[in-house]
Amino acid sequence: MVQSLLLFGIFFFTIGILVTYSYIMKIESDMSSLLLRRSVIGSDDHSSGSSTISSLSILPKPLPGRGLGSGRGHVSCDADITHLVSYWNDPRSNADRKFQSPFSTAVLNKQHPNKQQQPQQRYLSFEPDRGGWNNIRMEFEIMFVLAAATGRILIMPPDNPIYLLNKDRDEHGQNMRALQSFFHTFTDVVSTMSMQDFFALEVLNEQTYPLPTDETNRSIVTNAVQNCEWYKYSNRSCFVLNDYLTMISNYSPNWHGEHDCLIMDDTNWFRDMNSDGGSDRERDEDGEPTTLTRQQQKQEQQRIQRFCGTRSPVYYNAQIHTAPLMHIRSHTKDARLLVHYYAFIYFTNPIIDNYYKRLVRDRVRYSNDIFCAAGKIVKSLITESGIDKSGYYSMHIRRGKCAFDVTY
After folding, report:
1. Helices 350-363, 133-150: crossing angle, 10 deg rounding
2. pTM
């Protein structure tokens, strides 16, 4: 009798373990499906550092704060300062190096096989902000993320005098600076082209875009592609060049950081080939999007509303995607993107959103020369403090933003 009860006990205990294990596996499966409910497929025309999220695997735990295959970034410097200033991953994690953007022509072709888009070079040009360096960098990060996510070639603006960084001159007497000279190379994740090369290829050689018919403006535009000045009547005026790019572009939105927010919805962007918004997407018989349940759609709209606040959502779609030349007119007051990329661009899939945040951290970083100089200063401050363990404390105080005497 005791033996029978013992056997029954072992039997039911084993069944209980199997049921519990199956339940745990189901939860993990459901979580995987929830996280990966959007199919991230294909490779982009010019997105060389991208990865497809296709499955979740049980892998050894990476080092804290770093994915498998990644390492702490190094600064090439004649002093040992990497540990004082490095915050990025280089190499990036295995998963990040394999990532492929879902906002690609390959995805568009798969969803619309009868409207195949021919492989072509798609460009993104922009106007640098007229403010100080931090404002310029904030706007540039938006352009970087947009180019990386959509596979566009990023056309770098001509060298120009940068506000508050234009007092010194080079050996040729020029006070022009190239935006990319501040950064370490990032062409492994975003293809770039100089304005001069773009003109040589698409305007002068291929004649895809016509030059101004007015002889004066034509001369100004061709003079300004290498370096330009922020004077309206200069013979190489940045303003005239930007007006020309706006005119020839296939899509030039007047997005404003305080009035608009860009929604990157990887489940729906490719669905409507004719709409310039998200309102006419394919829907089921109840009028709901075919890829999400009604409850999921409601929750997503609530998240978008929280992100945008009082701003108007602009949905990235096929019409925006297929424009060969997209020009962001962003230096004027009515179209200024004085906002961080993570407060302007909203990826509805958190996995994709986090990827691009890591990408900016790892690739939009300053050059070795800048970090080397900064690291030496930090090292000197630590040495001078005489307290190697705790180091030093710094404070950045801006009185009236230090721009106008009347605010003091």
Report:
1. 130
2. 0.79
Q: What's residue 58's pLDDT?
A: 44
Helix (H, G, I), strand (E, B) or coil at 387: coil
The predicted model gives 22-44 an average pLDDT of 40
Q: Is 183 helix (H, G, I), strand (E, B) or coil?
A: strand
List CB contacts of 23: < 8 A, sequence separation 6 or more.
Answer: none
Distances from the Cα of 319 to the Cα of 116, 241, 308, angstroms: 14, 25, 22
299 token code pair? 């929750």
Q: Domain extents for the chain?
A: 1-35, 99-366
Q: What is the pLDDT of residues 235-251, one digit of tens each?
A: 999 999 999 999 999 99
Distance CA 43, CA 329 (A): 28
| Cα dihedral 157, 158, 163, 164 sign | positive
Q: pLDDT per residue over 368-378, tens digit each?
A: 999 999 999 99
Are 146 and 125 a contacting pair, CB within 8 Å? no
Amino acid at 76: S
Taking a C-beta distance cutoff of 8 angstroms, is the pair 164, 403 a contact?
no
Find the farthest-apart pair of alpha carbons in the chain and give their distance in angstroms, rounded: 107
